[in-house]
Amino acid sequence: MITLLTEHFNEPKLHELETYRRLGGYEGLKKALVMGREPLMAEMDKSNLRGLGGAGFGAAMKWRTVTPEAKDPGPRYVVVNCDESEPGCFKDRVLVTRSPHQLIEGLLIAAYAIDARRAFIFIRGEYEVQHGILRQALDDARAAGFIGKSLFDSGFSCDIDLMRGAGAYISGLDTALLETMEGKKAWPRQPPPFPTASGLMGRPTLVHNVETLSMVPHIVLQGGVWFARLGTAKSGGTVLFSVSGHVERPGVYEFPMGAPLKDIIAAAGGVKAGKKLKAVIPGGVSTPVLTAEELDTPMDFEGPRAKGSFLGAGGVIVLDESADMVMVAHNIERFLAHESCGQCTPCRQGSFWHERILERGLNGGGTAEDIATLERAGENITGKVICALGDTVGVVTRALMKKFPQDFKDRFPQRHG
Ligand SMILES: Cc1cc2nc3c(=O)[nH]c(=O)nc-3n(C[C@H](O)[C@H](O)[C@H](O)COP(=O)(O)O)c2cc1C
Ligand code: SF4
User: Fold this and answer.
1) Number of structural domains found in the chain
2) Are 286 and 280 in contact (CB under 8 A)?
3) Could you tell me where the DSSP H helices lie in 167-315?
4) Is the pLDDT of residue 417 over 70?
5) Best mutation site among 85, 190, 344, 393 for ligand 2, i.e. most ligand atoms within 8 A of its Cβ?
6) pTM of the predicted model as reported, rounded to 2 decimal places
7) Final residue of a domain: which of 195, 230, 265?
8) Measured from the CB, is residue 315 less than 6 Å from ligand 2?
9) What is the pLDDT of residues 364-403, one digit of tens each?
10) Which helix (H) or strand (E) holds 100?
């Protein structure tokens, strides 16, 4: 089975420039600079690369929507989103630890495509080790002439800065991330305008996830059509899954887009200690649950959607027969309540009340009416808030209630008298 991002992960010093170069590193950048912008964009168009930070927006389409220099002269930026705070997702951490130059190369190609002379990598504050690895990689790449003035004598110059987050999940949302970078509170902006028109400091900005940009050198070197064919009709290439929970070998696994969920779980050694599988959260905690009967789901951007869920950022959380779904719902809603930025009342209050009601159920005080309240409250949040964090509140709980009604009936019984 073909792998791209993890292909050389058995090389112990892959994070060092010398090793990365020996394996063909930065040849994609060189090729892109020789190709020129439009042929590069054409390869991206053909690749069907989707944004791998969760939303799955077409990467080429996003690049093309960055307001061109001719229409809005002045600086434009590329920002790497390495905030990775979705519980269940850890693939960006692994990518940065093992192959930081792959990311830097992809970032520089994207910067060239949109003519950005300045780029930023925003890394989650807790990723201290990875911050050090990236800083070293950036220093080495700069010293070797891959970052800075006239890369490969092309006349294109670009510098990259590294910034650290301060520990808020919401700052991973692109517009909140831009606010943080500007030194403000991480409050999501209400689009439009989108960052591609007005992003960092009001300038056109391309925000991408680590994994998305790490794919780019492979597209340039092998071609967009080749890349697209690795995946499914609408989701090109491969994708990383962070597999955690009740499996024998938690870790990061690379698969072609569209691989069945059961193959991903099997790669992680299957359900731990031979227990029975109960459920799988397919894309990180903000994605609705799938049941053990839905293991044939093709894991691309379309497959989980057909089952009422999302690929998200590929955080596959496996739950065995011992899992209490009320506890799972409580855990997730408590997280969302803690991380809500508080700007929108339905999100701030809705997440708080979800947490409280679910807690009551766990503590033995739940009633059947609570289930109806949870249904109603959830329906009144989605679509009435600024960002997708708020949209998630209640959605996850409602999916758990729908697919595992008995767990909720046990915790929220009919009480008489
Ligand atoms: C609450 C929330 C948190 C997010 N956190 C991240 C994150 O840590 N990393 C990330 O790449 N995208 C995150 N996103 C998605 C970003 O808003 C954005 O879609 C993404 O960075 C775009 O990159 P892509 O096109 O490469 O996917 C988050 C979204 C939401 C709603
Ligand atoms: S939906 Fe929630 S997290 Fe998003 S802006 Fe509103 S209050 Fe903040």
Assistant:
1) 3
2) no
3) 174-181, 210-222, 224-230, 261-267, 303-306
4) no
5) 344
6) 0.97
7) 230
8) no
9) 999 999 999 999 998 899 899 999 999 999 899 999 999 9
10) helix 100-114
